[in-house]
Amino acid sequence: MAERSAEGEFRSGFVCFVGRPNTGKSTLTNALVGAKIAITSSRPQTTRHTIRGIVHREHAQLILVDTPGLHRPRTLLGQRLNDLVRDTYSEVDVIALCIPADEKIGPGDRWIVQQVRQMAPKTTLLGVVTKTDKVGRDRIAEQLLAVSQLLGPEAEIVPVSAVKGEQVEVLVDVIAAQMPEGPAFYPDGELTDEPEETLMAELIREAALEGVRDELPHSLAVVIEEVLPREGREDMLDVHALLYVERPSQKAIVIGKGGSRLKEVGTNARKQIEHILGTRIYLNLHVKVAKDWQRDPKQLGKLGF
Length: 305
Fold this sequence. Notes:
Blueprint: E1 11-18, H1 25-33, E2 51-56, E3 60-66, H2 76-89, E4 94-100, H3 107-119, E5 124-130, H4 137-151, E6 157-159, H5 168-177, H6 196-209, E7 221-229, E8 236-245, H7 248-255, H8 260-277, E9 280-289, H9 297-302
Parallel strand pairs: 1-3, 1-4, 4-5, 5-6, 8-9
Antiparallel strand pairs: 2-3, 7-8
Helix pairs in contact: 6-8
């Protein structure tokens, strides 16, 4: 049971991190939750599902909603991802805009602020200056001032380094203070309400995107076909997954020479999945071509978008 803190009532609510791709949203989610649930990749636009991370503290419970980055859509998939973001904005208590300490504020950041204010005018907007470990103090101070000018003097701004864990608890407290008073939504110990299949698919997708050239990110979808207990083994699951790409050339990239890359993907994803599920798994991966699936409503539906 969640207890009251000495300062007053227990608070709970929903928070959404927004920002351009690669501004550290997923890394921050993982740092706050204390486990890897959101996919972190050096590729923009890798998060495809609203993964909720649950932050448990004595005085508060924060449910983190991780959305795909809001962007100007070029495909039907892009449009659907944006719709997902819009729905999320209207349902959370706090929206936290992430801006890295090592990058200047640009038109993309201003556009996001404009969209947020338009879609959720009553929602509290906070600023988070991320990746503070990458720059010196002067640069952090400059960035805090710039973000304050962007959001207005009434907005609270917190500098953090999710990688080093600096100021993470300060951010938790600042967000918690903006939450309504009320009981916890989830029991202690739960880290996400996302189905296990979705997490598995995300981890496989992350492993497949690691270190490949730029043409792949948007074109890769992962579907978990089935998860079966291994006959005669209580401690093992057989997981069968399909990786969909749009072109044969992309299929060749994912598989690699003599299947070497796909094998590596399987090994990396398996370790992550075993860590999350707490059980051994056998991971069976197959790559298929689904021509131009991002522009085809039928195929988008089939792949879960």
